[in-house]
Every structure is written in structure tokens, then in C-alpha cells.
Hints:
Blueprint: H1 3-22, H2 30-33, H3 48-71, H4 82-106, E1 110-112, E2 115-116, H5 119-130, H6 149-164, H7 166-174, H8 178-187, H9 200-224, H10 229-240, H11 258-271, H12 275-282, H13 287-290, H14 293-315, H15 322-337, H16 352-361, H17 377-395, E3 403-405, E4 408-410, H18 413-440, H19 444-447, H20 449-455, H21 459-474, H22 495-509, H23 513-516
Antiparallel strand pairs: 1-2, 3-4
Helix pairs in contact: 1-3, 1-4, 3-4, 4-5, 4-8, 5-6, 5-22, 6-10, 7-9, 9-10, 9-11, 9-12, 11-15, 14-15, 18-21, 21-22
Amino acid sequence: xxxxxxxxxxxxxxxxxxxxxxxxxxxxxxxxxxxxxxxxxxxxxxxxxxxxxxxxxxxxxxxxxxxxxxxxxxxxxxxxxxxxxxxxxxxxxxxxxxxxxxxxxxxxxxxxxxxxxxxxxxxxxxxxxxxxxxxxxxxxxxxxxxxxxxxxxxxxxxxxxxxxxxxxxxxxxxxxxxxxxxxxxxxxxxxxxxxxxxxxxxxxxxxxxxxxxxxxxxxxxxxxxxxxxxxxxxxxxxxxxxxxxxxxxxxxxxxxxxxxxxxxxxxxxxxxxxxxxxxxxxxxxxxxxxxxxxxxxxxxxxxxxxxxxxxxxxxxxxxxxxxxxxxxxxxxxxxxxxxxxxxxxxxxxxxxxxxxxxxxxxxxxxxxxxxxxxxxxxxxxxxxxxxxxxxxxxxxxxxxxxxxxxxxxxxxxxxxxxxxxxxxxxxxxxxxxxxxxxxxxxxxxxxxxxxxxxxxxxxxxxxxxxxxxxxxxxxxxxxxxxxxxxxxxxxxxxxxxxxxxxxxxxxxxxxxxxxxxxxxxxxxxxx
Length: 527
């Protein structure tokens, strides 16, 4: 391991974080950040505490970055290999979690009235933002005395940065030679297709440009629909990053606008689409999107599951009218499958089919090369094909049939093993984390009177709620069921449980390996 080169690269990333924090400073001014329609007891004032907290956090990040850069200055010009690239990606997300928590701590943000945010809660909120999970421990987003507007903007900005990844931004700006390819593979989720560009720097630049352009377009559409500039930008960041952070307690449901919801549906679907396909559409080749087998399955799942949720929901009288049934069914299915996690309807009160199918969608996710989390549609497609081939081999052991994806023959001998190992690893991490959570988490949440009546089976409900919490954090979705349903949050979980969630969110965002290798001693040895 080339520690000097690793230090230099991490130093540059810290400096990028320092710069990124400065963009939240203007929103401390009441003319930009203040939401005038909120009925607040205190009038608009300049948020000095939030402003100074962001400025101080930026200086700390710059100091850390400068120290790391100077420590590795002798590595300038050295080549970044695969091990250093994986270490850079993993450690950069650890640094992001720590540095991103500073504005919450220094600003005096409160997770609830009279409850100052703790270090664990700040780390949770920071990682939830960067991993685009959208889970939160903040119980009141609408009181600037608890959460300043400029801190809310930083909170949403962590979605923006985490959407494509700070490491991809590093490759786009500076390039990293041969190591850039390894960094892109570690950062962009899913088994991505080969790019049409030979240089990783150009690929990263194009993907970042598409991502930024979509954010701008969506922010303008939100603004035209009546959102303030502050709300439009924050919700655009949450949508395109498939994160789900909102500036209101009721999430997007606060606006009570079917137009905003339908616009959000379209852009959530785009965010869950492989960005390479969006590139082909932008250069006049939309047929490449329709001919892509993963995207066709992705759209088919969204439409079929939405139709099923609508049918069973209408039969069970979960919706007041047909238009609400269509909109709410489609919105929540798209929101969960793309791992955005926005809420406009309390799906925790749906019929068993609707609730059950949403849990299954948590394990699907968006397309490879998208900002969506989850296990990715392409892996499920390949798993189905692998299982079919294995089934055929059980009664035709001598048959030789290649693995095909559409018109493409996949001759990568290691791919079959990779898919099976990945599914096995996810299952093992899910099971172990669930057992740990139900063991270490106190029962008090499920013994409270109000929740006991709603849950019905008291502690039996804890098993389901904890399972949904593991799935929601591991696959970067955010809301789950019961005590973390669409109208609840993670504030009441114990500190050790929240640290487990932080680890799971990081695992899910980087798809296991870039984080797990950090715990392997041989990974750090010089070969």
C-alpha cells in the first residue's frame, strides 16, 4: 500500500469537502433560506450560528485536507493502483461521514425540542445524506431554531455530493490515470457496462454533467410549480440522488400538489436509470435505452407492481378515489424501488399485499450505473438466468450453454461467481445485522402505549420493524415500517443501533467490498 499517495489523494478530497460547505453559507441569509409561509413565532433573521458552524467546518476540513496533502506531497506523479483506489474510496466515505457531521454539531442543531444533537446522531445524519439513504433523526425540520435553513441546505447538499460520489468528482476534475478506472468501478454502483470513452476522466465528466443538468432542470420545474428556490434546490438534490431528504416534516406530501408528485415520479425513474443510457438518449440514440434488457425489466417491474398495488389497494379501500390510487401507488412504488424514500402517503396502513411487495422492492433497487441504491436490477436478471442454467445442468449435465443478456453473450467466467457471492453476502449481512439489532435495541419503543395499540402484537412487531430497518439502511432507502414508517424516523433508536445503521448505509452505498476490505489486514500490507 502506497500510504503517501493515499494520503495525498484523501487530502484533495477533504479540500473538495471544504469548498462544498461554502455553497451552503448564503442560505443563512433570510432573503434566500427563510420560508415565509411557515407560521413561526420568530421573524426572519440572519442565522449566525449556522453560518459560523459551516465556515468553521469548512476550515477544519481544509486543515485536515492540507495536512494529508502535505504528508503525501512526495507521491506527486505516482500511479494509483487498484488497492490504493479501493482504499481511497472506502476511506473517503469514512472522512465524509466525520466531516459532514461537523456542521450539525457546531451549529447547535437539535434532533428534537430541548434535545441537542449528539455525536452519534450527527454521524448518522451525515452518512444518511452522503449515502443517499434519506433516513433521519431530526423530528422537526420546520423550526429554524432547531435546524437552521443553511444547515438544511447542507443536509440536502450531502445528497448532491453522494449521488454520483465525491470520488467520481475527483476523477472528473483531476483524473487519476490507470487508477481512475478502479475508482470509478468502486464508486459507481452495480456491474456497469464498458464505457464508450477510453479515458475515465472524460467518462466521469460526462456523467457528472448529466447529473448536474438534470438537477438544474428539476429545480426549475419545482420552482415553476410554486416552490421557493430553497425548497426547489433541496428537493431536486434529494430526487436525482435518490436520497429523499426533504425540508418539511411531511416530505413532498407537504405541497399537496399532484403535478409536483408526477414530475418527481418521472425524475426518480430517470435517476434510477443507467446514466450511460441517458447519455445515448441525449445524443439522439433513444433506441439504445429501449433495447437494454436491464432497463426493460426495470420499467416492467415498476409498472406491474404499481398495477398490483393499485388493484389490491382499491379492493381493500386504501385510497379515497381513482386518481389518488393511481398517483399514490405509482409514487410509492417508484420511490421505494429507486431507493429515494420520499413519502406522500402512509403506506404503512396499506393492505398486506401492498406492504409486502414494497418490502421485496427494497431488495431490488435501480439500474447499474444509476444513483439508485439496492442490489440493482441487472443482478436479479443475471441471477435468474444463472439459476435457469444451473437447473438445466441438473438434468442435462453435458449441455454447454453460454450466459446471454439480450443479444450479448457474456463469456466472463468470474461473473457467475460474483453474482452468487454478492447475493450470499447480502443475505449473510442482513441476517447477522438483524440478529444484532433485535438483541441490542431496547424494547421501549414497542412498549409505549400509542405504538403498542398500532402495532398490535407488541414485541412481535419489533422483529418486523428491525428487519425493515436493516433492509432500509443496507439498501439506502430510508423509511421502513412500524417505528421507522413513512411518518416516523430513527431518533428513538439506541446509539449502538444507530452506529450499526451508519455502517450498513456505507456498506450499501459502496456495495460491500470497498468497505469490507478495510478490515482485512493483508489489504494494508506492502506486496
